[in-house]
Amino acid sequence: MKTFPLFAALFVGGLISTPALAQHEHHAPAPVTPTPAPQPSSHQHGATAPPTATPAPAQTPHAGHGEHGEMQMGMEMEQKPDDRNLFQSDMTLMTGMTPRDPMAGMAMPGWHLMVLGVARLSYNHQGGRSGDNALESSNWNMLHLAHDLGRGRLSLMMMNSLEPATFEKSGSPELFQTGESYRGRPLVDHQHPHDFFMNLSATYRAPLGADGAWWVQLAPVGEPAIGPTAFMHRASSGENPTAPLGHHWQDSTHISFNVATVGAGWKAVSVEGSAFHGAEPDEHRWDIEGGKIDSAAGRIKLSLPAGWSAQVSHAFLRNPEAAAPGDLHRTTASLHYGAEGDRPLAAMLLWGHNDEEHGLSDSVLLEAAYQIKRSDQVYGRAEWVEKDRRLLEFKGSAVPPAIDVPDIARIGALTLGYLHDFVLARALRVGAGADLTAYSFPSGLERVYGSSPVSYHVFLRIRWGKPHGGMEHSGMTMGHSGSR
Length: 484
Prior knowledge:
CATH superfamily: Porin
Structural class: mainly beta
Strand order of the largest sheet: 1-2-3-6-7-8-9-10-11-12-13-14-15-16-17-18
Distance between the termini: 49 Å
CATH topology: Porin
Number of strands: 18
Strand content: 35-45%
């Protein structure tokens, strides 16, 4: 089977890349004097903490430490070296598209490299009359370079996936999933592969006063300012290998072409705007498609107290679906807890709304991941989506003529999963997991899907890479970001 050598090649490539990170590691000195150290000012970073007569309590492992928690260049909790989860979440911190800067106060002469990646070998069983089975690999590998430039910092990112080779060309089987097309027909009951180029972007970020920043990003392949962080990078997704059924109501624009984004933030608030090509990627997954800039998006983010955050966004998309021409207005709003992966629980409530030429439709998603201990995580997802019943019934062919009132099918899905992680090294982890999904849907679709289909995944996950050593917790705080 072609999946095995590709999976192995991706795994070996990650191992080869990882040692390059070690040369940049830094470690904070431990306090050695019993006299109290002076209290640092609010913008002083990298200072050692005052000594204490009693040792600090051990920190709880981070939620969402897997694939979906690897994208934030935030600080690690102050844990023993053999008891740390290495990664956090939210790709916006990596690119610098946030008021906060986890590297604040640290000079970065020269180029600094970070390599992260994940590969999952899965047996995917989708039940019922429309189901299918597959042995497949979801995967990505990311290279991130950062360099001080003027008063700010330049970040370069490239993210790739071999899913065009490790998925079937029609995608990964997933009941009730819709979005994008193959051979001129809409994809139904399948999740499309990611493109080989998932991200190719350059971001410049500079301070704006003492507590703010501005940034600009140019990306032949990138993510416009619409929706929350994409599902595979969210702490709340945990180790869930499956795209939400509401993906094309919520975060499907995470791979878009010719994206230009500008933004600014101050303390807890940031505002961003993007212009980009609105069409979804086509079935030719190895190229960079480009296209005319014809769509726009805007987003407001709030960082709230006690681990809470939120976003609201809106986008106009010009002809996003090749198999269903027509413009689309998309609105999303989400509330997050523990989105930075620095708490044992991460959760998100998300609403996505599509306003298309043929009608309106909504989706609601609640997902969470809980880190029981360093090696054990449970995750879950509950969602409700309004989909085109005729598309689900006729699978994109021989569909009766459209009627003025859309024929909506309200689909529900509940997923519960578990992963056990094995720490082979600070920059290499292997995990084994499984999950189970059950559905609710209109009785009229039983002739197509059966009365009570159940789906499951059983998978092995390999994850490599770690943040730059200077981003580990060494007295550095994330609460103040105006200076570098």
